[in-house]
Amino acid sequence: MKIALSVADKEIARGPESPYFKALVAAGAKPEELQLVNPRDARRARAEEFDGVLFAGGQDVDPEFYGEKTKYDTVEVDRPRDEFEMALLDRAMDLRLPILGICRGIQMINVKFGGTLYQELAEEMDGGHRQEGSRSAVKHAVTVTDPDSQLADVVAGSCRVNSLHHQAVKRLGRGLRVTAHSEDGLVEAVESAEDYPFLMAVQWHPEELVEEHAEQRKLLELFLDKCREAATGSSGEGLKIRGRVRQGRIQRAEGSVEMSG
Q1: What H or E segment, with its residue span, contains residue 206?
Q2: Which is the catalytic residue, given 85, 207, 221, 229?
Q3: Which of 103, 120, 159, 188 is labelled catalytic?
Q4: Is 212 a catalytic residue?
Q5: Which of 2, 88, 121, 188 could form a disulfide with 180 if both were Cys (CB 3.0 to 4.6 A apart)?
Q6: Is there a catalytic annotation at residue 103?
Q7: What is the pTM of this model?
């Protein structure tokens, strides 16, 4: 099994000490099963090489991607990462890989599906969501609003989460469904509304909460389980697609067959 963790530059610098890396190891992944990637890895970070993709937190998605201009000085974009991750998401979905989005991850996924964002909650809503102090402290409750969701399999009704964001989902993208809300009505989690093996994204940071909050660890364990299924073939169709692509790559390397796609 191999999982791509698409992260900000500072997480690349941290390597195995990145909270995302450490949290997945705590949830049962082996260090050698995880690879931190960013736009500088675009040529070699191919979705075909992985059995799952995690899109982590970081700077804001460029509002141009959802048809708006930047409204506030607090909006800090990372256009190369936007382009890299949207291309990676496209290919991962073509291959039907398990996908998990965290904080920026839910925002990027929503934008890619045609949705929009609140650019600054402190300006566009009554109060913001960015907490002060420890990242592992919990600030507010999140309620699961879709009992048939995969999130409902790991969160029993509601849980308390941290809140480290200043943006959020505004208009939901087509092909997504909301699975959880915060107390003030903001979207806190989404999943695929289509027949897709596993696409889940959350607005909070479960990687900061795994040590003291069992449901957050279970969320990451669920993602790892889905990645293992993809790697071993339990997920069926997705493995067949990746198998054909990987076989084509091997044959190209041997100079015997040229395969498009």
Answers
A1: none
A2: 207
A3: 103
A4: no
A5: 188
A6: yes
A7: 0.88
